[in-house]
Write a structure and sequence with these properties.
binds S-adenosylmethionine; 7 strands; Rossmann fold; about 375 residues
Length: about 375
């Protein structure tokens, strides 16, 4: 069984299929949830102004979104210090986490420009702002105990640590690559079990790293209803990708058996599932849990009319998922596959304007023994 940590990565570099050029949906999600991030940071600073503040962005990837997240956070802290008349802002320790194959070099290379921009916005006395790369899975410990005041993660936690083991290499979910309307109950149960295992480990690991009163804002794909087969937004883009795979299998370009046994390491939880895990783990108080929708193409207004909506959506999905498909089907077939996906999406989106469902969750680490 292949663990996500071994091969998964967003498409690297800056070519047409890269995540850097195809992360407009995630960028939109970051801006839609900015007010929740701001509220959480201001509450950390209301309780006390730490001399040194530990901040982490989990599943940061590479490309423009990484530095836009950190500059948002930094600007919120500096503006608050200024309003409060503090002579000196806290020292910032910023940890950027992602899996081992992430393009950390790309992030590091863009830091000089980031520091220059921060000095322009916040004045020449900006700093110390110390930025660290932390490779590894957020489903486990990444940071020293009691070292973080604010944790952020956007568009990452819907990735499981692995395909549910009961499904791996079996054809129980034949012809599909995630939960769909026709999936047997055992498929739904296996995915839910893997989500529970992963999310509870995530919470436990962060509970050891976040200081009492510290905050965490998590945004990820989800669904509205308990029944995961009801809502199209949570699985349809993957079911259409499964159709593209099956259609090229029918042409003999990939073996159908390979499609039958392939499942994605993805889970879109509903609010009740999140609330239950937070309650069971017990270290965090839930401050907010909101559901919002994003168009499949991120509501792109700037896209030229010459590019069909199917093409735009296919490129956005490809930048994220290509590495997992390559390991099963090989890289040679990818252009052909995503071209077919594009056509299927164009047909689907000519009849309906599909949306992704997203959840934003804001929690506070309890003070030990106080239950709050
Ligand atoms: C769609 S990208 C989102 C990147 C960025 N946060 C943004 O909003 O643009 C998802 C990221 O989560 C990372 N990721 C997935 N599972 C992870 C895990 N277990 N530990 C750390 N990072 C993970 C992926 O490698 C990928 O870079």
């Amino acid at each position: 069984m292949e663990l996500l940590t071994q091969s998964f990565h967003m498409n690297k570099a800056v070519d047409e299929t890269s995540y850097a050029k195809n992360s407009s949906i995630q960028s939109k999600i970051i801006s839609v949830t900015k007010s929740v991030t701001e509220e959480a940071i201001l509450e950390v600073l209301c309780k006390n102004f730490p001399e040194s503040m530990g901040i982490a962005d989990l599943g940061c990837s590479s490309g423009p979104n990484v530095l836009s997240v950190i500059s948002n956070i930094t600007n919120i802290i500096y503006a608050k210090c200024c309003r409060s008349g503090l002579p000196k802002p806290p020292e910032l320790r910023i940890f950027l986490n992602d899996l081992y194959n992430n393009d950390f070099n790309d992030i590091f290379a863009s830091l000089p420009d980031f520091y220059d921009e921060m000095k322009e916005v916040n004045g020449n006395s900006f700093g110390p702002c110390l930025i660290f790369g932390v490779p590894g899975s957020f489903y486990g410990r990444l940071f020293p105990s009691n070292s973080l005041h604010f944790v952020h993660s956007s568009s990452s936690l819907h990735w499981l640590s692995q395909v549910p083991p009961e499904l791996d290499g079996t054809a129980i979910n034949k012809g599909h690559i995630y939960i769909c309307e026709s999936s047997p109950q055992s498929v739904l149960d296996s995915y839910y079990r893997q989500f529970q295992k992963d999310f509870s480990l995530f919470l436990k690991s962060r509970s050891e790293e976040i200081v009492p009163g510290g905050r965490m804002v998590l945004t990820f794909m989800g669904r509205r209803f308990m029944d995961p087969t009801i809502e199209e937004g949570c699985y349809n883009h993957l079911d259409l990708l499964a159709q593209a795979l099956m259609s090229i299998a029918a042409e003999g370009l990939i073996p159908e058996e390979k499609v039958d046994i392939f499942n994605t390491q993805y889970y879109a939880p509903c609010p009740e599932e999140i609330k239950l895990e937070i309650k069971k783990e017990g270290s965090f108080v839930l401050n907010r849990l909101e559901v919002f929708e994003i168009d499949w193409d991120g509501g792109a207004v700037e896209a030229p009319n010459t590019v069909s909506i199917g093409r735009r959506v296919a490129k956005l999905v490809r930048a994220v998922i290509e590495s997992t498909l390559e390991s099963q089907f090989g890289s040679d077939i990818m252009d052909y596959l995503f071209h077919r996906y594009e056509k299927i999406l164009d047909n689907h989106l000519s009849k309906t304007r599909s949306k992704y469902i997203n959840l934003v969750v804001s929690v506070t680490k309890k003070s030990q023994g106080l239950g709050n």
